[in-house]
């Protein structure tokens, strides 16, 4: 699915005639071309989709500071949001950080940043996330092109359901220890008490 196909599917969802190009001079094309970049970013930021996650070494940012942190690093240019910052030597590698503008503040001297990347080409997105984009785009365009607030809300609700389902399909694989720490959750606890 390309940008035009996504826009036309969204238009059909709201009962508006499809367009021939995003550069057409009609209202539907102007609305869709205006909404598409930000709607893509909104969908990409909805969840840390495994296909959009990137990890790269932190690069120091000369002259930058973040209050409360000893080191400042560059936010990668294609980063939409930072998910984690890793140290090379701390437990499990995850450390405290704060993003201010295009700077990542942290208390480590070196490490890596995991982030959701801006992936403009939706042809590379999984099909279920493309469907999320189409539905969100339809919701975002509904008021401008139809004036129907109920349609906008119904499509936004559908988008939220699709995004939730898509997030379940896109869980990132990670070796994480069992989160249950209560004594009753351990199988040997009952045997030890007897």
Descriptive account of the structure:
The chain is an alpha+beta fold and 194 residues long. It has 2 domains: 90 residues, no CATH class; 66 residues, no CATH class. Helix content is 40%, strand content 18%. It has a 4-stranded antiparallel β-sheet, with helices on one face. Strand 3 and strand 4 form a beta hairpin. Helix 1 packs across helix 3, helix 2 packs across helix 3 and helix 3 runs antiparallel to helix 4.
Descriptive key words:
single chain; 194 residues; alpha+beta; 2 domains; four-stranded antiparallel beta sheet; three-stranded antiparallel beta sheet; 5 helices; disordered C terminus
The number of domains: 2
Radius of gyration: 22 Å
Low-confidence stretches: 175-194
Q: How are helices and strands ordered from N to C?
A: HHEEEEEEEHHH
The strand order across the widest sheet is 1-7-3-4
Beta fraction of the residues?
A: 15-25%
Average pLDDT level: 86
The description of the largest β-sheet is: 4 strands, antiparallel
Helical content class:
25-40%
Number of E-type strands = 7
Structural class of the secondary structure composition?
alpha+beta
- Envelope shape: elongated
Q: For the record, give the distance between the C-alpha atoms at the N and C termini, rounded to a whole number.
A: 62 Å
Produce a short descriptive summary:
It is built from 5 helices and 7 strands, in the order ααβββββββααα. With 194 residues, it is α+β, with helices and mostly antiparallel strands.
